[in-house]
Specification:
- By secondary structure, the chain is mainly α.
- It has 7 helices and no strands.
- It is globular.
- The termini are far apart.
Length: 118
Amino acid sequence: MRYIMIIAIFCIGSLFANDIEEISKQCNAKEGMACSYLGFLYNEGKGVKQDYFKAKELYEKACNLNNGRGCYNLSSLYYGGKGVKQDYFKAKELASKACDLGEQDGCETYRKFNERGY
């Protein structure tokens, strides 16, 4: 049920304070997908003030909960140096973990890092 709500909110595109509060509760209950989605909201500034540091914190939590999308998104922050010091090797490591967790975008990114010699 929780996943359905997150997906429905994502598809509809409208967020209200109580939706963000509910997603925050799910993240605090160690739902990796919720943490990753909340990180995305902070990263993009959707329904909340854009905050790369908060996005990093949430993506890191999601990744530690073995959410592949969270690892991939965290990899993107390290690649772009958003909210963190730019670090291609850390980005590659996180892309690899995302791939190991079944996140196809992580596999593609990891492949590209290898092609570029990182």
